[in-house]
Structure formats: C-alpha cells, structure tokens
Write a structure and sequence with these properties.
The protein has 427 residues and is α/β, with parallel strands linked by helices. It has 14 helices and 19 strands. Iron/sulfur cluster binds next to helix 6.
Length: 427
C-alpha cells in the first residue's frame, strides 16, 4: 500500500517538475514514506533519519519530509524529535504537497495531517516506481472501519472509503495499454468495497469481474480479504475467471476464539475454518496465505496451541508472522495489559514460524512434477540466464530463459524447489 501511495506522490511531484532519482546523494527533496503498524517499523525510520542527516548538514537547502502513517500518528512531534525534518504529511494530504513544499522552501516547517472522508486520489495517474513493467498495484479503497483492538490503521489512515470504479478501470486499462500484465487490487478489507451510483451498487465481486474483463491476459490479484466478510459470491467469481489468480490472503491472526474476540476480529475459529472449507470446495487448487500475531494480551499456552493446530489444519501456503507490538491509542493499549513477556512472545513466534516453514516446504514439494502457467516478471536475482515469474497461486518459479521475455506467459514444468522458490524448465 505504501508503494502504491509513493507512486501517487511521485505523480504529484512530477507535475511540479520534480524528477525521481535512484541516488539519494542527488536529491533536493527526500520524502520518507512510513509505516506505524509495529514499533520496529517506526524505529527503523528514526534510524533512517539519522543516517541521512549528513546530507542536510552538508546542504541546508535539501528538504526532508516524513509522509504516511507515522507522520499521521506523531504529527508535530516528529519535528520536535528530529530537527532535520521540514515537512510532516499524512496519507490523505498528498494533494497539498505543492503548497507544503513552498512553505518549507520559505524556511517554515510544513505540516498537514488532516484525514479525509473522501480522498481516494482518483484521477491521479500513479507514476510506476517498480521496474519490471509487468505487475502493478492499484488502490481501490483507503482507510479502514474495522476496529481490530491491536491495530493502528483506522487511526492513521482514517475511515474506509471506496474509489469510483470508473477511475479504477481507467487506471487498469492504461496499465494494460502500457504493457502491464498483472494488477493487484489493494484495500485493507477489499470485501467491503462498495460504490453506489444512481441506485446501482458495485461490490467487490462486481468490481473484480469488471477488472477481469479488461482482458483475459491480464492477471488480477487482490489483498486483503477479511474472514468475516469474504463471501461465497466472491469465491464463485474467482473460480469463474481464469485470469483472477487462485490465491487468497486471509489473515487469521489467532487460532483461539477467545483471543479473536479480544482482538475484535468478529469471527471465531470455527467461522474461519468454514471459510477455508468454502475456498477449498469452490476453488480447488487455490493457495491460501495468512497473517498471525503471537503473544497478544492475555494469550495462554492453550490459546497459542490453538493457533499452531489451526496452522496445521489450514495448511497455509505462506504466512506473515509477527510478535504483538502494542500501539499507543489502540483499544488494546487502552484496555488490556501487554502482559506476555518478550521471551515468551519470541518463543511462541519461533514455534509458529517453524510449523509454518514445514508446511510451506510441503506445499512446494507437492508442486514438483506439475506444470504451471507462469507470467514472466524478469530475470532471476541469481542469474541472467534464468527468468523468474509467478504461478496463479503466487509461488515464485525460476527457469532457463529459452528465448522468452518478461510479460510472456509460459508453461513451466517444476523439477525441484528451494525453501522459497520452485525451479523448473519451460515445457
Ligand atoms: N487489513 C488487513 C487485515 O485485517 O487482515 C491487514 C492489515 S495490517 C497492515 C497487516 C498485518 O499486520 C495484520 O494482519 C496483522 O497481522 C499485523 N499487525 C497489525 N497490527 C499489529 C500489531 N499491533 N502488532 C503485531 N502485528 C500487527
Ligand atoms: Fe487493521 Fe483490522 Fe483494519 Fe486490518 S481490518 S487494517 S487489522 S483494523
């Protein structure tokens, strides 16, 4: 999501005559797009600011701005703590960049952290910063209305709002015309996407169908689904279109219904299992990935074991796994005690990672001997003679180039795998 936002920022700055540089030493304006989701994300930003302070010391005309969620959360406090920062800009204030930059140029600290109920940056054509020219993010909504007890997102990105489907389709058509072959539709809870115009309602199922119809050779991915909202209607739409990728990221967070209730996730372990069963029966061969938090407030060994057993049961192809990090202002920070000692959080996280690694390896081994359609994204990191792409299930495949190029679809016969990658040759 921050990559997509940075691309909007680059578009706004390009209109002002700025150019993007790969070399920070050349920059007259340095913007750092930030994340507040866990404390260590913010710690890294403070470290980054220290690391770049010498540029400002050498040339005081260089402007430094902190943008995104951390700017929203800390507001003026950023400037009090780090004097090299000239601008603090929240995620809904990017259209105000021209005036904020002039203010900073005139020697004043510039701050805009107003959140909006309407801003979706519709009408701005993001300038793609990714280099592959094949895959791209498309933001379909902003903010979040779910109040998960641990999560800072609703406070730093504001209320949920959906973007006009026409502007989404314009962006997707433009990407297709420019050679892109895959889009990932982004929202904190894509299942609650909703747009109404003259009595006609577009939900996420309708939206993704419209995007899939742009061209059968355009792959469509999406993230993130919420277990409480993901509908059978959406699953049937995914199964109907070959170009809607067979991969669902469905964050479970915990396997214990008691913890899920405290987290305010609005579903139980049984409900989540039912959704997985629905995915398996409506879309056979669909990969499922998840997010898990270890050591949430009051989590017992029993709760933790329920998470481990759910991971085993679901057989996730992939998971992002985190230690609970208390975020100031959230319901959990206000009402519950962050009472799981750090070493227990670490041990539980390691147990979760070890079970998941075993399952991820098993899922890759099962792919050996099979043939997958792969969209080529570029050269493999290790060798120019090898290409790299992904299957519809979002697994990375590496294979000898054989005269093919990025943007092509090829069928690859998988011969072996490493912990992260399938390796094969074009069939
Ligand atoms: N909207 C998505 C959802 O509800 O699944 C995910 C949003 S969040 C940016 C990505 C992940 O970060 C969450 O699924 C959760 O696992 C993790 N996360 C959020 N807040 C956290 C916290 N305070 N401590 C640790 N992990 C957190
Ligand atoms: Fe955070 Fe929950 Fe919204 Fe996801 S759904 S962004 S975890 S509040």
């Amino acid at each position: 999501m921050n990559v997509a936002d940075s691309e909007v920022v680059v578009a706004i700055l390009s209109d002002l005559g700025f150019e993007l540089t790969d070399s920070i030493g050349e920059a007259g304006l340095i913007l750092i797009n930030t994340c507040s989701i866990r404390e260590n994300a913010e710690q890294r930003i403070w470290g980054r600011l220290k690391a770049i302070s010498h540029y400002k010391k050498k040339d005081n005309r260089i402007m430094i701005g902190l943008i995104g969620c951390m700017a929203e959360r800390l507001k003026e406090k950023v400037i009090e703590k780090e004097h090299i920062v000239d601008m603090v800009i929240g995620p809904d204030a990017y259209r105000d960049l021209p005036s904020l930059i002039s203010e900073a140029e005139s020697g004043h600290k510039a701050v805009n952290v107003l959140l909006s109920k309407e801003e979706t940056y519709a009408g701005i054509s993001p300038v793609r910063m990714d280099k592959n020219g094949v895959t791209s993010f498309v933001s379909i909504m902003r903010g979040c209305n779910n109040m998960c007890a641990y999560c800072v997102v609703p406070y730093v990105r504001g209320a949920e709002r959906s973007r006009d489907p026409e502007s989404i389709l314009n962006e997707v058509n433009e990407l297709w015309a420019n050679g892109y072959r895959e889009v990932t539709l982004l929202g904190q809870n894509v299942d609650s996407y909703s747009w109404e115009y003259e009595g006609h309602k577009t939900g996420f199922s309708e939206l993704i169908e419209k995007v899939a119809l742009v061209n059968p050779l355009l792959r469509v991915r999406f993230s993130t689904s919420h277990p409480k909202d993901i509908s059978d209607k959406l699953l049937y739409t995914i199964s109907k279109y070959n170009n809607i990728c067979k991969h669902i990221h469905l964050p479970v967070q915990s396997g214990s219904s008691r913890i899920l209730k405290l987290m305010n996730r609005e579903y139980t372990r049984e409900w989540y299992m039912d959704r997985i069963k629905a995915i398996r029966s409506i879309i056979p061969d669909c990969a499922v990935s998840t997010d898990i938090i270890a050591g949430f407030c009051s989590e017992t060994e029993e709760d933790h074991k329920e998470t481990l057993s759910l991971i085993e049961w679901a057989g996730f192809d992939f998971a992002y796994m985190f230690k609970y990090s208390e975020r100031p202002g959230t319901k959990a920070a206000r009402k519950y005690k962050d009472d799981i000692p750090e070493e227990i959080k670490t041990r539980r996280l390691n147990e979760i990672i070890s079970v998941q690694n075993k399952i991820s390896a098993r899922s890759k081994k099962q792919d050996i001997g099979r043939i997958f359609e792969v969209l080529i994204e570029g050269n493999s990191k290790r060798s120019q003679d090898y290409l790299s792409g992904r299957t519809t299930q979002n697994k990375v495949v590496v294979f000898p180039e054989n005269g093919c190029k990025r943007g092509d679809y090829v069928n690859v016969h998988v011969e072996r795998c490493t912990s992260a990658t399938l390796i094969g040759r074009i069939n």
